[in-house]
Amino acid sequence: MPDQFEDLREAEELSEDEERLLDELGITGESRRRFLGQVGVAGFSIFAMQVIAQRQALAAGGTYSEAAADPISLENAVKVVFKVNGEKKTVEVDSRMTLLDTLREKLDLTGSKKGCDHGQCGACTVIADGQRVLSCLTLAATCEGKEVTTIEGLAKGEELHPMQSAFIKYDAFQCGYCTPGQICSAVALIDEAARGDASYVTAVEGGSNTKLSDDDIRERMSGNICRCGAYPNILKAVKEVHKGEETAATWKFHRPDEKAGADKEVADETV
Amino acid sequence: MRPFKFNSASNVRDAVNAVSKNDSAKFIAGGTNLVDLMKEDVERPTELVDVSRIDLRQIRSEGDSIIIGAMAKNTETANHPLVKMNLPLLSQAIFAGASPQIRNMATNGGNLMQRTRCVYFYDTSMPCNKREKGSGCAAKEGLNRMHAIFGWSDECVAVHPSDMCVALAALDAVVRVEGPDGKEGKAREIGFADFHRLPADDPTRDNTLKHGELITAISIPKNRFARNSYYLKVRDRASYAFALVSVAAAAELDGKKINAVRIALGGVAHKPWRASKAESFLKGNEAVAENFEKAAALELEGAKPLGHNEYKVELAKRAIVRALQKAVR
Amino acid sequence: MRYIGKEMSRVDGVAKVTGKARYASEYKVNNPAYGYIVQSEIAKGTIKSIDVSKAEKLPGVLKILTHRNSLKVEEQSRQFRALQNDKIVFCGQPIALVIADTFEQARYAANLVSVEYDREQSATDFDNLGRTQTRSSPARGKPAEEFEAAPVKIEAEYSIPIEHHNPMEPHAATAFWEGDKLTIFDKSQGVYGVRGHLARSFGIAAENVNVISLFVGGAFGASLNVNYYPFITALAAKEVGRPVKVNYTRRQMFTGHGYRPYTAQKVSIGAGSDGKLRSIIHEAATNTSSYEDFTEGTTRFGRTLYQCPNYDSPYYLLKSDLPTPTWMRAPGAVSGAFAIESAIDELAYKLDIDPVELRLINYAEKDPDSGKPFSSKELKTCFTRGAKKFGWERRKMEPRSMRDGNWLVGWGTATGTWGAFQAPAGVNIRLNNDGTVLVGSGTTDIGPGTYTVITIIAAEVLGIAPEKITFKLGDTDLPRAPSQGGSLTTASVGSAVYGAAGEVRKKLLSFVDKKDGSPLFGAKFEETELADGNLRLKNDPSKGIRIVDVLKEAQMAYVEVDYQSSPSPERQNYTTMAHGAQFVEVKVEERLGIVKVTKVVEATACGRIINPLTSHSQEMGGVVWGIGMALHEATEIDHRYGKMMTTNLADYHVPVNADVHFIETEFVEEKDEIVNELGIKGMGELCLVGIPAAIANAVFHATGKRVRDLPITPDKLL
Fold first, then answer.
1. C430 and C508 in contact (C-beta within 8 Å)?
2. How many Å lie between the alpha carbon of B296 and the closest alpha carbon of chain C?
3. What CATH architecture applies to the domain A155-271?
4. Which residue of C has its CA nearest to A269?
5. CATH says C263-421+572-717 is which class?
C-alpha cells in the first residue's frame, strides 16, 4: 500500500470495541478498510460555527462561486410564457427541456424533485391548471399559458398550507425528498374528492367519492412513492385535511418498571 | 433525447399536414409515454407537433354510440357521467392504469398509442425487432415473465401495456382517424380489433395507422352491460404497476342465463386479447362458476407460454373466472 | 426526563414541506455545467476505441472525459474508480463523462459517443459460479454430528435476488474549485469519507476539501461507500473551470453504488421433540464482483438468536461480473433472518408447537456464542406484549384455517435483532449568553431524524428548551463524526453531546463555585446539573443560577466545548444488541395469489427511545422495506449479457401506498446503563430484520405454501 494512505493503515489499529463492531457487521477485507476510513478515529477539525451559519444561509438561496457566465447555446429554443405560483414567467428553453428541469434549473424552484425522470415515482408532481401532473414528462414547450403551482407556492407567507402542517404533525416523511410531490398530490386529491372524482377503488367496489375511505386514499396516493415508507402517516395527514379526522398515535411505550398490562399511554406527551 | 423542432397545432388539418410532411415527425399530446421513450433514445423524432390544444375533448352521446374525444384526458373520460353510467367497464379499466397524475396528463388517443414496456425494447443496447427491425428478439429466450402467451411471433413476444384498451376491445370500440389522404372533417373508421396488430413479421408497427394519421375520437356502441361488468387486474403490487394479467368482463343476463358476454384480456398479447372462444361457449349458458371455468379453460387452450411465463396460463384462467364472478354478482 | 422520550416534530420539518430543504444538486451555483455519464454496454472486456468526435462537436459541449484523458489516481484499494483504464468489469460501468452547458445537450451528446469493445464472456449466473469460502466464525460444539443425531430435522434452501436501495433522491454532486480548494455538495452518509477520498484522489490536503451534505434524500447504505461520481464531478469542475453538477439517472442508480447481494442459504436444524434446538447449520453464499470481495453478516446474527449448543455458519462468496454489492438496510441480518426465521417456523410446524412458544423455549438468556451476558435484552417481553397486542392467542395453528371471503388469512412472526453499536464521535457546543445554543457534529441525517433527536438530547443534557438549540450536521467543517450507518448515529453523537454537556457544566461551574455569595459556592461538579435553564444543585434545585446569568456575570459572550466521545470499555464485558418481536397478518386472494399485508405489530426493545414520533416512523419504514423485500423487489439479470434489466421504478417494484396498511409499534423500553450513558441503541435496521420472514411465515399459514425464494409474487402462489 502506498505511503500516502497512512491514515488508513493507522485505522487498522482498532479498539476492541471497533473490532467487535466490524465483526458483528460481518465486514471483512477491502470493505472493512473502507468502513474504517469512514468511522474514523482521527482527530477532528477546528470548528468554525460562523462559517457554517453563513454557508447555510447561502444554501437557502444565495449563490456560490462567482465564475462569469458565458452565453449558453440552446437547440430549437422555444419561448414560453406561463404562470408559476401566481407569477408570470417568461423563459426561453431548449425544446427538449422538461417543466421539471425548467423549474429546478432555470427558475431555482428546486422543491419539485427529480426521483426517476420517467413518470415512475411522482416526486416531480406539480399542479397545472388545477390538476396534479408529472413535471418530468411535461415538456416546458407545452406549457404556454398554463398556471403551475409548485410546493413553493402552497404556503401563504409564513402560514403553511393545512396539508403541509398535517404532514409535519403526523411525521408523514423522513428524508423529505418525495415530500413536495406527495403534498402537491394530496392537495389536488382534496379537490378531486370535493368534485366527486372516482378511483379504481370506488369504481369497482362502490363507496363515497367525496368522503374517501382509507383504502381509497391509499389508492389515490399510490402515484407517489416514498422509499422511507411513511405511507401510514401520509394517510393520516391526508385524512385529517380531507375529513377533519384526527388519527390516534399508533405507537406506545411499555416500560419495564410498569406492571404488565398497565402501560401508560404517553402518545399525547409532546415537547 | 435528440434535438427536435417543436410546433403546436390548433386544428386537425394543420397537425396532419405538419406530421405528413416529415417522416420522422410525431404528434405529442399528453407525452407520458413519448417523452419517456425519447429520454431513453428509443423514440427519435426530429419534430414534434403538439396536438393537445386541438378541440377534440368532447365526450358525448351520438346515436347508438358514445363518442369520446381523442384529446380528452383519461381522468375526465373515466369520471364523465356518460361513461360512468353507461360504460363502467371503461371507467374501471382507466382507473386501473398508471397513477392519478399520469391519467390527468394522458389522452384517450395517446392511450391507444402506448408502446410496449418490454425491458429489451427500452434498452437501446439490446436486440429488439420492434425498435430495430432485424436485430432480433432478446426477450424470447430472455427475461419474459411479463411477456405474451398469445399471438406472438419469433420476431416479438411483447405485450401491449394499456388497461383502457382492454375494455375498449371488449366493448367493440371504433377508432376514428383523420389522415393526409382523407377529406377534411371526414374520419376513417377502424374497428378496435383491427387497430392494434399482432407482431407477425413486422413488430415495428404496433397498429394499423398510417404516418400522419391522427386519432380524433373513439366511438363505443351503447350496450346493456352496465350492470354486470368488471375490470380485474392482477399485478405485482397493489397499484401503479403493469398487469401480469388483466380481464375486462361484461355480461348481459336474463336471470341466470347469459344473453351476451364480452371478455378481453390484457398482459397476454401484443394487442388486447379478445377471448372469443370463451365468449361463444358462455353465450346462452348459465352464469355459474363451473361454466366460467370451462370457458376459461377453452380460451387458454391456445396459449403458448414462454420460458418464464407459464404461470400466466393458469393465472389468466383464474382471472377470467374471478372477473366473471365479480361481473355477475 | 424532560425532553427525551417525548414526541417532537422534526426541526427540519418546515424546510422539507415547503421545498426549501436543498439536496445535493439543488444548491444555487453560478453558471453550472452539467455532466452526463456514458456507460459500457458490455459486462466484460476491453475498450478497443472510443470515438467522441461527433459528441465533442455539438454546440455547448465543453469537454468529454474518458479513460484516455482522465486524471489517474494511485490505487489505494480494489474499489472501483471511474475512467482509470480501458478494462470493463461490469455492464453499466462509466466509460465517459460528457460536460455541457445544458443537461439536455449533455444527455444527447452522451448518446453520440461510440465505443468499440473486445468483448469477453461474462459470468453472472449465480447457479454456475464457483464458491470460495470466506471468513466465518468458528463452529461451536459439534454441529454436524448433533444434527445427524437429532430426532427432528429441518433442511431447507432459501434465496434472495439482488435488491437495490432506490432512495428517492438519485445520487448527485455539485462541485466547484476556488484555487486548489474544492467544495462539493454530495449525497453522502459520511462527509468525512468523501473528503478523504477526494483529497487522496487529487493529492491535496484534506483541509482543502469541503464536503457538504445537509439534506440527503434517503440512502439506506447506498451512500456509505464513496461512490465513483464525486471524483469525476470534481475532476470535471476542475477541467472546465466552472461548477459542475452530475446526477445519476434512475437507471444509473442500479450500477452506481452497489446493491444487496444475491443470497443463497441453506439451513439445517436439529431439535428434540420437546422443541429444544440441538444444532443449527446456517450456510450462506452471496455474490460479489470480480475485482473486490464484499461480505456481510448474513450468518452472524443467527448465532446469538437461540440457546443452541451446536452451531456452524459457513459463508461463501460467488465472484461475478457485476459491480460490487454494498450494505443495504440491515445488511446480512435481514437476509440471514429470512432463512433462519423461516426455518424456525418450518420446525414449529414439524413439531406442532406454536411459533412464539418455540422461540421462547429456546430463548437465549446469555449470548450463546460468547457466553457473555446481554447488556439488556427484553425480547421475551416483546414477544408477550406483541402477541397480546396482535391477538396471537386467537391464532389457529393449522394452515388455511382462517379466511375473510375470497381471502385466506395468515399470521406469522419472527425475531428481529441488530447490534447496539457505537463509534467515536466529535461534537462542538457553543452556549451563548442569550440562552441560544449551537451544536455541531459532522455526521449526516439521511432521513431518520438525526437533526431532531440530537436537538432533543442537547436540550435534555443542557437543560435548555429545544427551540433555543440549533443542531448543524453534514459538513466537514464540523467535528468528525461517524457516517450514518449501522444504526449507530444517535448512540454515538448522542453520547458525544452528553459528554460535551458535562464539559459545558464544568466550565459554567468554574465561573461561580469560587464566588462568595454564589448559591453554588463550593459546589462540586458531581452535585450539579443543568436543568430548566439553570445550573443548580441536584438535591436542592432551589440553589441555582440561570445559565445566561452565569455567562453574563462572567462577562462571557459564550462558552464553547469540543468533545470527542468513545464507546465505554465496559461494553466489552457484554453483548450489546437490540431486539424485537415482529407480527404480521397477510391476506392472500385464494385463486389469484395476490398478497396484502394487512396488519403489522412490532414490539421493539432498543434501549431508550429519544423521540417516539420519529422512531415509530423508522419502524414503519422498516416494515415497508420488509414488505418490499418479501413481496416485490428483485433486480433481474439477463445472464447472456451480464446486464441488470429491471433498472427503473416501473420494473423494479417498491411498495406503494396501497401496499401498506396498519402498522403499530410498542416500544418495550430497556434501561441499559452499559451501552452508553443515555442507554441508546439504534433501531433503523432492527425494525426491518424479521419482517420478510414473518411475512413468508404468514403466507404459509394462510395458504399452506412455503415460499423460500423471494419475492413472493402472485405466480408463486397459484
1. no
2. 14
3. Orthogonal Bundle (1.10)
4. C6
5. alpha beta
